[in-house]
Structures are given as C-alpha cells and as structure tokens.
Amino acid sequence: MLSFTNSEPPTPCCNNDQHAHRSQLSPPRKRIIVAMTGATGSILGIKTLLALRHLNVETHLILSKWAEATLKYETDYTVGNVRALADHVHSIHDMAAPIASGSFRVDGMIVVPCSMKTLAAISCGFCDDLIARAADVVLKERRKLVLVTRETPLSTIHLQNMLEISRAGAIVFPPMMTFYTRPAGIGEMVDHSVGRLLDLFGLDTGEFERWEGWRKD
Fold first, then answer.
1. Nearest Cα to 35, choosing from 2, 74, 82, 72?
2. Bond prior to 113 in cis (omega within 30° of 0)
3. Neighbours of 189 (CB within 10 A)
4. I need a labelling partner for 187 at 20 to 30 A (CA). Which of 47, 101, 103, 109 fits?
5. DSSP secondary structure string, 78-122?
6. Start and end of every Flavoprotein domain (predicted)?
7. What is the tally of structural domains in the chain?
8. What angle is formed at CA 22 by the lines to CA 16 and CA 23, rounded to 5 degrees?
9. pTM of the model
10. Model confidence over 74-94: pLDDT tens digits?
11. Is the pLDDT of residue 8 over 80?
C-alpha cells in the first residue's frame, strides 16, 4: 500500500498553471504553406502573403526558379522582398524540410499561382520537388489544398488533371475577374480573388466587397 510522508497532497507548479492559462487565452496561430510557381500572376501570391501576414498566420513559403524570374518580370518586388513576407522560407530542392512530412502540422497549402506543370505533378503524385511533395503530404493527411491555376484556354489534359486533383480532395481555384463590384482597377480584382481564396480557410481579409444583392440606386 502506498503512503505519503507529507500529509498534504503535492501542489501543481504555478508555471504549469500559467502556461495552461495562456493556452486558453491565446489559441495557436494558423499555419499555411504558400507555394509560388512560374505561371503568370505573381501579384496573387504576393498579395496572399501580405494578407496572411496581416492576419497573423504563420507562413511557409516555397518559390520555384521560374516563380523568382516571373515576379521580377511582372512586379517591382525583388525575390528578397517576397521572401521577407513569409515567416519561413524553404528551398524547392529541400526534400528534408519540415513541410515534407505529414507529422508537421499545417492548416493547409495554397499554390498561387499554380502552373499546369505543377498541377500535373501534384495530380499524378510525382514528387520531384518540395512544392509537389508538400502538396502530396497535404492531400494524404486530408488537409486543405488550394491550387490557383493560371492558364487559358484549357486543353483536355489540363481539364483532366483538374478533375483528378479535385477528386483527390484539392480545390481548383482559377482567379476569375469580378465585374459586379465595378472594380476601379486590377488591384481591386486581385484583392477580391485573394479575399475569396482565404475565405476557404475561414480567414476574412476585409479587403473586398461582398455580394449583398442588387444595389438600390
């Protein structure tokens, strides 16, 4: 029979109480992987990173070689500027990165913009780089994967790959232009696409106009 020499039961450490109290007050930050490929539409990826930073979401960024080339061609951002927007940056060749494992917990992944090459690799499970591998992990762990596909017109091969990846559980999200808001320029169209994209993760950017029915003039 067990007995205690001290008549009073041991008291829990106050540090544990403080830690538990903080845990109740501060839920863990959301964690999202953002991958950018060489498809046109670099500003969509940049604005997504900016929005997630504003929403205090932890981001893990992967840039392909052609994503770096495209963003320099399409925008005034440097590669260093874009890398600085993320909490963590991983080399596309680093297959030992934390995000390459299902044991590393994330809330999902966004490929923005997503080229047809990357779509094809993810669709058939060809994990030849970290973007495809991280997406494969997100799918197998039944987490949210959103592919912001950029191509037009679409071939039968593109459509078949989109159908297969949708059946596997991913969301295909072509960034469609919205006219009912009467946007003043491309910036507002980008904000609308990014806002709708992050809606899929339960995140509200507050940076675009939502449909509230016909306007009354």
1. 82
2. yes
3. 18
4. 109
5. -HHHHHTTSSEEE-TT-TTSGGGSTTS--SEEEEEEE-HHHHHHH
6. 30-200
7. 1
8. 90
9. 0.86
10. 999 999 999 999 999 999 999
11. no
Known binding residue 105? Answer is no
Cis peptide bond prior to 9, omega within 30° of 0: no
Q: Is 115 annotated as a binding residue?
A: yes
Task: Please write the tens of the pLDDT for every residue from 124-178.
Answer: 999 999 999 999 999 999 999 999 999 999 999 999 999 999 999 999 999 998 8
On whether 39 is known to bind a ligand per the annotation, the reply is yes
Find the domain containing 188 and state its range.
31-200
Instruction: Flag whether 24 is in a domain.
Output: no
Tokens of 27: 């839920």
Would you say 196 is a known binding-site residue? yes
Residue 116 counted as an annotated binding residue: yes
**134 in a labelled binding site:** no
The answer to whether residue 46 is domain-embedded is: yes
Indicate which CATH number applies to the domain containing 164: 3.40.50.1950
- Is 215 within a domain? no
Known binding residue 205? Answer is no
